[in-house]
Write a structure and sequence with these properties.
By secondary structure, the protein is of the alpha/beta class. It has helices at 39-52, 68-75, 95-109, 123-128, 135-153, 189-198, 209-225, 244-256, 260-270, 276-285, 317-329, 342-352, 354-359, and strands at 5-9, 56-59, 83-88, 113-117, 158-161, 166-170, 182-185, 201-205, 231-241, 293-295, 298-299, 312-316, 332-338. An eight-stranded parallel beta barrel has the order 1-2-3-4-7-8-9-13, surrounded by eight helices. The longest helix has 19 residues, at 135-153.
Length: 389
């Protein structure tokens, strides 16, 4: 089994010791928390992530959070090794401009850009940005968009006239080196076709292992038909503690902090989502506070008040490591994790779970690689249990 890659998450909408609502399909201003998403606070998160051994940090996109491009560009100045998995939506900028932005980011960050392409599953939200295509048309445009961007990044001069996009004599002054990896998620047939043709890593939200296995087999089959192979990744929250009882006590505390009226309001908003992935998330809990452990150590409570990724791994450090290894045996090699609040939970996971995975030969600190940025850090990080959260 290959070494696993772990990324953390940047809550550019605010953070809290409670679950911060918001996300896909919810209105602007629906998020927020006790800790505003200032650059000073986000720096705390990225510094912790870099020290602990996360490779990158995912940023969300949408009206409910700060702009991902601008925020991460500012944060590159205070980090050495950490990459930024920038979520962006094709169609809101031209493919040539997006290719140029990616190339510029790569140069000025020292090659630390990763791209998370979000087609957009909510027509009402897209219309707020001036995009009036329906869902299928948005995926068709994403297909054309990535075709153009990939060609530009190869250094080609591009003339393209598609159903949705057209460019003439498009080229870049300088191509990115290295070319940013493209991450992408989606559960619809149209999403699968785009993934198979264009992306480097396919992402799924955290479903039970059997469902993840089906999705991995599905997208791998589509990619094979295109003569390509993809890396597989999963997006999960996490509550990891010294004992399982402590972890589940924290999950119960988070659940107790959710007002039933908030659940009802959020679920009503998410019910109109056009996203197949969001529908699969909603089906895991059905809007109920009962029966939220939908698979061993997999808790669907986050999805009661948050769109997008709605499940968390909950358990002792060993139990969480076991569940990660279970997903890894299905072909998942990249894990995008998060927790509330994001500073403290990064340490619980980084000091509790990652050492276990290292002992099992499944992970090593990125700074341990010869010549890696930050390689002056010790290859064997002295991990100690955190005293509280």
């Amino acid at each position: 089994m290959t070494n696993l890659t772990f990324h953390w998450f940047l809550p550019t909408y605010g953070d809290s010791r409670d679950i911060v609502g918001g996300g896909h399909g919810l209105p602007a201003g629906a998020a927020g928390g006790a800790r505003p998403a200032t650059l000073a606070y986000l720096r705390q998160i990225v510094h912790a992530a870099e020290q602990l051994g996360f490779v990158g940090a995912l940023t969300p996109t949408g009206a409910w959070c700060e702009d991902a491009w601008l925020t991460t560009a500012m944060l590159t100045e205070t980090t050495e090794r950490l990459k930024f998995l920038v979520a962006f939506r094709p169609g809101l900028v031209t493919p040539t401009l997006a290719a140029q932005m990616g190339a510029t980011f790569q140069r000025h960050s020292g090659g630390r850009l990763l791209l998370n392409v979000v087609t957009g599953g909510e027509s009402h939200e897209q219309r707020a940005y001036g995009d009036f295509l329906d869902k299928d048309a948005r995926y068709a445009r994403t297909d054309e968009f990535l075709h153009i961007v990939r060609a530009l990044w190869r250094g080609e001069s591009v003339d393209f006239a598609g159903e949705h996009l057209r460019v003439e004599d498009a080229r870049l002054n300088r191509v990115p080196d290295p070319v940013p990896d493209i991450y992408f998620g989606g559960s619809s047939p149209a999403a699968g076709r785009v993934a198979a043709r264009h992306v480097d890593a396919y992402l799924t939200w955290g479903e039970p292992p059997a469902a993840v296995a089906e999705k991995v087999a599905w997208v791998n089959g589509l990619a094979a038909a295109e003569g390509r192979t993809l890396r597989q990744g999963i997006r999960l929250h996490v509550i990891s503690r010294d004992t399982g009882d402590q972890a589940w006590a924290q999950a119960r505390r988070l659940l107790d902090g959710i007002d039933p009226a908030t659940i009802e309001k959020v679920q009503a908003g998410l019910a109109r989502s056009e996203s197949e992935g969001q529908k699969r998330m909603l089906a895991l809990h059905g809007g109920s506070r009962d029966g939220l452990e939908i698979s061993p150590n997999l808790w669907a409570g986050v999805g009661l008040v948050r769109g997008g990724a709605g499940t968390a791994l909950v358990g002792s450090h060993t139990e969480v490591a076991d569940r990660i290894e279970e997903y890894a045996r299905l072909g998942i090699t990249e894990f995008i994790m998060s927790g509330h609040p994001h500073v403290e939970e990064a340490y619980w996971f980084g000091e509790g779970v990652l050492p276990i995975l290292r002992e099992r030969g499944l992970w090593e600190h990125p700074a341990a690689a010869p010549g890696a940025p930050g390689a002056h850090e010790p290859a064997s990080i002295p991990f100690a249990s955190t005293g509280g959260s």
